[in-house]
Structures are given as C-alpha cells and as structure tokens.
Amino acid sequence: MQVLVVGANGMLGHDMVAVLKARGMNVLARDLPALDVTRDQNWDDLPTARWVINCAAYTAVDRAETEHELAMAVNREGAGRVARWAASRKAHLVHVSTDYVFDGFNGPYRESDPVAPLNVYGQSKLEGEQAVFGVLPDALVVRTQALFGLHGRHFAGAIQRRLKEGPWPVRVVDDQFTCPTYTVHLARAILCLMDALATGTVHVSASGQCSWWEYARAIAAEAGLEPKLEPIPTSGYPLPARRPANAVLCKDRYRVITGEDMPDWRAGLKAFISETSEKAGAGL
Ligand SMILES: NC(=O)c1ccc[n+]([C@@H]2O[C@H](COP(=O)([O-])OP(=O)(O)OC[C@H]3O[C@@H](n4cnc5c(N)ncnc54)[C@H](OP(=O)(O)O)[C@@H]3O)[C@@H](O)[C@H]2O)c1
C-alpha cells in the first residue's frame, strides 16, 4: 500500500516513515525542498497514494510571534494544500496538530472541548485543522504534545546539553504540565488509528503527565546526569509566545478506537535515552 509522508525529514516524519516501512508499506517520503506545502509546484508529479500523512509544519513556537505569515503559510494554507491533493487522489488523510490549540486553563482536554490558542503557532495549527476538515470532513487529525525523538530538537536534548555544559543551575518551570511523547510511540499509534480507519480529531500523547521540572529531573536521572536544576514559575522564564499551563490531552477516544493505552512518558524517555546511547556507542 502506497503512503505519502509529507515533512518526512522532521522529527515525527522520520519515525513515521520507519514505522510504515517496518509494516511493509510502500512509502513515498517527501520534504523540503522537493515538496513544499506552501507552493503548487511538484504536486502533480507525485504518484497516487492510498494514504497521506502530513507531518510538515512550521514549529518555531516563539519565532512564530514575529513570523506570523510564514507560520500561517505552512500550517494553515499548507495543510489545506495537502488536504486538497489527498482529496483529488481519493486518499485518506492523517494530519498532525497540537495541544497548543487549547489555552491550558482547564486540562486535561477532550477532543470536543473548546479551543482557544494563546499564541500564533497554536492559532496557525488550529486554522490548519479547520482547513483540513473544510476539504476532507473524514480526515483524521491527531493532536499531540511535547514530542521528543532521535531526529529533532526538543526539551529532552536541550536539558541534557545544559546539564553537561552549564550554566548551572538549569532553571525549569514547575507550573506547566504536559505529557512528553516519544515520536516512535506516536508513529505506532498513528498506524493503529489508520488500521482502525479512524476519522475526526483524536488526542494522542503519552500516558501519565508531569511538570516540565519533573520531566527535567527524569531526564537527568535516566541519562545519569547530576540534577543541577532549579524549579521556577512561568513568570520567571518569560518567552515571546505564551504557553498553556495545563494542556494535558485526554486519550479516552484513542483507547476506545484502538483498544490500546499509550505507553507512559517515562517508558518513552527510557527508550529514547537508551537508543541515543546505543547510537552514540556505535558512533552514529
Ligand atoms: N515538536 C513538538 O513538541 C510538537 C508538539 C505538538 C505537536 N507537534 C506537531 O507534530 C508535527 C510534527 O512535528 P515535528 O516536531 O516532527 O516537527 P519538525 O521536526 O519541525 O518537522 C517538520 C518538518 O516539516 C518540514 N517543513 C517545514 N516547512 C515545510 C514546507 N513549507 N513544506 C514541506 N515541509 C516543510 C520541516 O523542514 P525544515 O526542518 O527544513 O523546516 C521538517 O522536516 C507537526 O504538525 C507539529 O505541529 C509537534
């Protein structure tokens, strides 16, 4: 079965391609510069696919506050363009979105809860979801959160670097809560949802939840690093984009559809750190 993965070189895209290939699927992996979701070029040359998985996104949350047009071009218009291509080929579409569509005042969030993004990135992703459903009402939109994986930049990597190199103590907010999610686990979950022919919005992130401070402590423990960390409130770490304090996603719908629970975030972290050290040991 032919599957087109757009944004295939990104953190999730990379693992998505690997998980699909491991299932024996015929994967067309595309990313910039060959396939740009903000442009019409090259789409007509793509072979037909039975499934399209859109992992492409503008993900620079803070920069988006000043790069509004680019964020919208990729996350809203780009999402619509991928959906139109999928519709023209009668392909099923999986589109990936974010917990940042919520304001974080009332988590955990179900799929039907009201959305209210606090920042430009969240607004652009929300408008992307709307663009997708406007074209393909039967699309699958997977909202996820706090991703980490072997092929991208993320908090788990940044904390390890800071713990090794300083300056110490490394200050981490302890009043924002999330579900840190390993991209390999998310990619497998997306495949389970495809098997079930799920449609509509589905929340998928790791089981359990933690503050970013608890997450940093767990990273230090798992990586065998001294936890030179200091918990601070969000007010002590001002950033250009506001973040939701608690946008923990409720996974009940995922469980009903697939009959599965997502792995706990600590299991994801353990798997990620052991894979990182194996790769480092092998000089990769
Ligand atoms: N990372 C998180 O913590 C997180 C949390 C919640 C939801 N999500 C969502 O999960 C999905 C995957 O995120 P990720 O962390 O894997 O993102 P990522 O690592 O930034 O990957 C996104 C990929 O899309 C590509 N891309 C950017 N602009 C494009 C364009 N105009 N046309 C085609 N491809 C383009 C990027 O290429 P370049 O690198 O060259 O720009 C990159 O390869 C996204 O929808 C994101 O919004 C992520």
Can you offer a commentary on this structure?
By secondary structure, the protein is α/β, with parallel strands linked by helices. The chain has a domain at 2-154 and 179-207 and 248-263: NAD(P)-binding Rossmann-like Domain (Rossmann fold). Helices cover 38% and strands 16% of the residues. The chain contains eight helices and twelve strands. The chain has helices at 11-22, 68-88, 120-135, 155-165, 183-195, 212-223, 252-258, 265-281; strands spanning 2-6, 26-30, 51-54, 92-98, 140-144, 147-148, 170-173, 177-178, 181-182, 200-203, 210-211, 229-232. The strands form four sheets. It has a six-stranded parallel sheet, sandwiched between helices. Helix 3 (120-135) links the parallel strand 4 (92-98) and strand 5 (140-144). Helix 1 packs across helix 5 and helix 6 (212-223) packs parallel to helix 8 (265-281). The radius of gyration is 18 Å and the shape is globular. The two termini are 31 Å apart. The protein binds NADP nicotinamide-adenine-dinucleotide phosphate. NADP nicotinamide-adenine-dinucleotide phosphate binds at residues 7, 9-13, 31-32, 35-38, 55-59, 74, 78, 96, 98, 125, 144-147, 152.
